[in-house]
User: Fold these one by one.
Assistant:
Number 1:
Amino acid sequence: MSLFSLPRIVISGQFFLLLLFFCGCSAPPGNPLDGKKWFMMNNCSACHGIHGDDGRAVHIADLNMSFGSFVRKLRTTDAPIMPYFPESKVSKQDAADIYAYLKSITPEVNR
């Protein structure tokens, strides 16, 4: 390998990492109606409230975090009372649906 080919390898490696970062962090298209069903069926509303901002737990209506951050919270929660949801319980698509639902909820102040 010559010294002239090294920069090309480094640049293509950086491009690959950048592409991986953006593709890995983006949310797949989510269905808010399916997300709402999942939210209700799995009792998220018991703590977060039916509208995501009318319960005892943190308000999550009109969610203000990236999809990647949301999935990390689902998978490894830091709240002692909230269960964690590994991929075997909540698929990436289910997470995208829930995320789409939470992003679609209008906060109480605007209802």
Number 2:
Amino acid sequence: MRTVLKKTTLVTIVTCMVIHRKNAMHTIQASEFKAKCLALMDAVATTGEVWVVTKNGKPVAELRPFSGQRIDSPFGLHRNLEIHGDVLAPLEDGLWKALA
């Protein structure tokens, strides 16, 4: 049995595919990523493409080419952020009441 599509439907499908293909990232399931990890890392290094690893259909990680730059700030904080004082010291009793 052959399905017949109208021209407008076909044009819409092709247009959507082209638009989404331009900005689409490649996705791979975690189980498949586990099996193909080393080959995929080589491909990313060669092509520069970004891959999104999914688990149960939800994105959990990205595999992208290494930029060669390290993050200078601790814990991913903004570079201009400065920590003043002892952040590990216990708060005074008066400050605890102010936070409540």
Number 3:
Amino acid sequence: MHTLEKTLNDSLAAQNNPLRFTPHYDSLWCETDDQTLFLALAELLRRVEARVCMISAYAKDEAHELVYHFDCGGVMVNVKVYVADRCVFSITPLFKSADWTERELSEIYGIALQNHPNPQRLFLDDSISQSVLDEYYSLSSMMNGRVSETLWSKVKAQKEARHG
């Protein structure tokens, strides 16, 4: 893992990219809120033959945190991207394995994908408004004890508004 960390960080430094990977247990992590730096990082990971395993999303207020999980020679490489405007560059042109997961992010969280080759919905019919999913609460929100009182207040208020 140390060799991969050095290779990635040396390549980033050579590109004058300020991002750096740091080890955390048995994986490498990097964080950014800069879409251009994220795309350059994805291109670097493609060059070292990483593959996208999964993309996780966490809704945080009006923003999102996306974590792109890559496998690179048996080492998990994770890139956390902060998305404030519900828009992210697609990495599907670089990694075909990102296609479905990115489209799922778009469909479920309403995140717009720039430059995605096939932005069609996966499961929901096109006649269903994107805002219908905004009425639901994610499991991560429900499980967070700090927001449970606020969450249930919102649920009760919406129920009363719908049913009078």
